[in-house]
Amino acid sequence: MKVAGDYVFDAPQQEVWDGLLDPEVLAATMPGCDKLELTGENQYQGVLNIKVGPVQGKFQGKIELEDPDPPNGYSMKVNGQGAPGFVKAHAKIDIAAEGEMTRLTYDGDAQVGGRIASVGQRLLESSAKAIIKQSLEGLNETLKARAGGEEGEPVRVDKPSQTEFAAAVAKEVAKDVVPKPVWIAIVVLLLLLILYFVLS
To answer: Is the pLDDT assigned to residue 103 strictly greater than 70?
Structure first.
């Protein structure tokens, strides 16, 4: 499974770099993350609670950063497993300043096996996109809140609930699977059916 994209942060490059390496910040902003802690130099361990279609469960994961080039980027290895199956991934993260903002670009490959692989490639890709998007948006909000708060004051940004995350996944699936005109036609048809039953 290929995962690639970019995101622009409303924060300077050094702040984005620091946020990406702070396990407390990442755990607070990543959907489904129960725990994330630094276990060694450039090594992290965490627990992620994920629901993809009918498959739900916890992954115990290890993350290792390779070739760190602060504050420009790094490579990352992920190895996670649990009752739903396993995930192995390798990604390259690049960070570049764009004026007062910062663009993060990611490009990675992942292998997925076990029960979670049975949900299908498209749903897995949509779920991965939703997790990455919400994690980066959450990190951006945290960095903006930190910049606007007083020094030393703890900043907390609520991460999305499981319901909000499921809605985000459904939105990504709808974008990928159903062409926009067909999606609009389905919505109109549902509205007409509701009006029919209300007026009859």
So the answer is: yes
Domain around 53: 2-199
pLDDT value, residue 154:
44
Helix and strand numbers (H, E) in the chain are 5, 7
What pLDDT digit, counting tens, does each position of 45-56 carry? 999 887 776 777
Q: How far is residue 24 from each of residues 33, 144, 161, 183, measured CA to CA in Å?
A: 11, 16, 18, 39
d(CA 23, CA 40): 12
Number of domains in the chain: 1
Residues paired with 103 in a beta bridge: 8, 96
Classify 156 as helix, strand or coil: coil
Instruction: Tell me if the pTM is above 0.85.
Output: no
What phi-psi label fits residue 117: left (phi over 0), alpha (psi between -120 and 50 degrees) or beta?
A: alpha
Structure tokens at 167: 């809605």
- Tell me whether strands 43-52 and 101-113 are parallel, antiparallel or unpaired: unpaired
Q: What CATH number does residue 114 fall under?
A: 3.30.530.20
